[in-house]
Write a structure and sequence with these properties.
By secondary structure, the protein is of the alpha/beta class. It has one domain: CNF1/YfiH-like putative cysteine hydrolases, CATH 3.60.140. It is about 20% helix and about 25% strand. A six-stranded mixed beta sheet has the order 4-5-8-7-9-10. A five-stranded mixed beta sheet has the order 1-2-11-6-3, covered by helices on one side.
Amino acid sequence: MREAMSIMVETFPAVAIGGQFCNAFIGRVSELDVTTHRKAALTRLAQYHEQARYDLGFGDMAFITAEQIHGNSVSIVEATTRCPVAGADALITDQPNICLGIYVADCCAVYAIDTENGCIGLAHSGKKGTELGVVPAMLKKMECAYGTDPAQVIVQLSPCIRPPLYEVDFAAEIVRQCQALGVGEVVDCGSCTGAELDRYYSYRLEKGRTGRMLALLAIIGNSRTAD
């Protein structure tokens, strides 16, 4: 039986507008020992993440994650897409009832919704991914695939590590990249994972032996391609 534990969950109003999109950011699971490497930590977290998805309304959706290799590859996702998506650090879709998932532990999960065309994107952007421009690549892929105009896009940054606990302010660079592309609205939650270990996991502060947060984003209303 799953032991009752407190799971830190937050949502971002900026990317939940109009009842068409839903999102969540699942933080630390209290009292769960995840002082181990990534694969083992994710195995221990799996049942809690699954239960949280169901509790938050994502449970009946296809759950698609990315391999996350700290690159800038973006993949278009459908319900039949093999998971995790090989080589990808960002996922986009215009289909409802697909739950995109990105794992982070200091890196930033970047949510994007196109309010005009009804499509979404979710990216894993840490120091390397930001340098490689994974978020601009995701927005450009949305433009090519769905006709997305950056001016109609809302971008939300998740908690991530920040100065002075990390030497690079990659969150500020993500914001700058989005503004340079003409993104209509960019919202940064401002939370630092390293500074709030009661709420979040931090790869840097916990020396690589820790769990992962899980970012979730889905379309729950009508999409432009739905019959």
